[in-house]
Amino acid sequence: MKILILGVNGFIGHHLVNRILAEKPDWQVFGMDLGTERIGAALHNPRFNFLEGDISINKEWIEYHIKKCDVIMPLVAIATPKAYVEDPIGVYHLDFEMNVNIVKQCVKYHKRVVFPSTSEVYGACVDPEFDEDESYLVVGPIRKERWIYSCCKQLLDRVIYAYGTRGSLEFTLFRPFNWIGPRLDSLDTAKEGSSRVVTQFIAELLLKRPINLVDGGRQKRCFTYVDDGISALMKILENNGNVCANQIINIGNPENECSVKELAAVLKKLFQEHPDHQQDSVYSDIIEISADVYYGKGYQDIYTRKPRIEKARTLLGWEPKIGLEESLRLTLNSFLEENQAAAL
Ligand code: UGA
After folding, report:
1. Where in the sequence is the domain holding 64, given as residue range(s)?
2. What is the number of other CB atoms lying within 10 angstroms of the CB of residue 233?
3. Is the distance from the beta carbon of residue 38 to the nearest atom of ligand 1 less than 6 Å?
4. 282 assigned to some structural domain
5. Which pTM value belongs to this model?
6. Looking at residue 161, which CATH number applies to its domain?
């Protein structure tokens, strides 16, 4: 099978390409990204063909490879809440406009698209568990610009679904729920305060800066270890019996639910237990901050977010295996290993 991955150097992309190259000797991957810092060793693998470049410029290369490949995964997107508030037009342009063009080419060339939707499309849904085919998708007012990402992704989901139900496109939409793991975010993005919460907190611990609990940290997330997420994605790509055709599938770990306040406490404990930091003279304080001050007026939080994963269980025969503390420990250890020197 030939797979085209746009954004292959991203968090999901590079973990996926490494797994494909390790486990699927007869699969070939074609990838594009702006940089190579995450993909590393994969670059030397003859089954991986990579072009360093921008998807908004290298349009001919993309069209040629859409024609050539069997499955297309457009993973390029801005996916950090701080950016939704600071650069909503940039989010719309990249996340929606660029990607809808790729989707249209998949329609034109009759190619299967495996597309990243997001847990954010459920927004402030009040269901205890979010169901792919039943839950309402709830967003806030326009002045709360945070919702632009959710809306871009939701409209893409709807466009893809409409092509699919009219027989013009074979698709699978997957919705990652707060995947974490090695190389989620860099130390540089954390220094600007624009990392996802787990890597932001680990970076604060490393930099000896306070850990900020936005609005007291009562928001809850279900953190999913990336290896579990990638296992589900592999099954979606395999698509045995065509079970994933035109399906939307949550990929998350409902057992790993915790509040942001609990998260801060666990990460601080894990950091203090780490062999390189047991003797540190000071540790980060955990403080409270308002959302307006931390993110700005355009932000609005999401207080609960738990996936229902019956579809992933039944369609894919998949079950997440890695518990919360282990997921956090693995993420913390790798972040420290990769960024310790730079932090000093
Ligand atoms: C994220 C991002 O939108 C995407 O990466 C993705 O689509 C989705 O979730 C996902 O991974 O499923 P969110 O979970 O809100 O959204 O993003 P985080 O930045 O990780 O924030 C989680 C929570 O921690 C928020 O309630 C935020 O207010 C809080 N937070 C964040 C803090 O309390 N302190 C911080 O320093 C950073």
Report:
1. 2-180+225-254+308-321
2. 26
3. no
4. no
5. 0.97
6. 3.40.50.720
60: annotated active-site residue:
no
Specify if 137 maps to a domain.
yes
Active site residue 305: yes
Q: Rg of the chain's alpha carbons, rounded to an integer?
A: 20
C-alpha–C-alpha distance, residues 93 and 195, integer Å: 21
Given ligand 1 and candidates 11, 80, 120, 266, which is best to mutate, with the most ligand atoms within 8 Å of its CB? 120
How high is the mean pLDDT in each 10-residue block of the chain (344 residues)? 98 98 98 96 96 96 98 97 96 98 98 98 98 98 98 98 97 98 94 93 97 97 98 98 98 98 98 96 97 96 98 98 98 95 76
Q: For residues 224 and 177, what is the distance between their CA atoms, to the nearest angstrom?
A: 7
Spatial separation of the C-alpha atoms in residues 54 and 68, rounded to whole Å: 19
Residue of 183, 196, 305, 308 with catalytic role = 305
Residue 81 in contact with ligand 1 by CB distance below 6 A = yes
Whether the CB of 116 sits within 6 Å of ligand 1:
no
DSSP SS3 for 84: helix
276 within some domain: no
C-beta 199 within 6 A of ligand 1: no
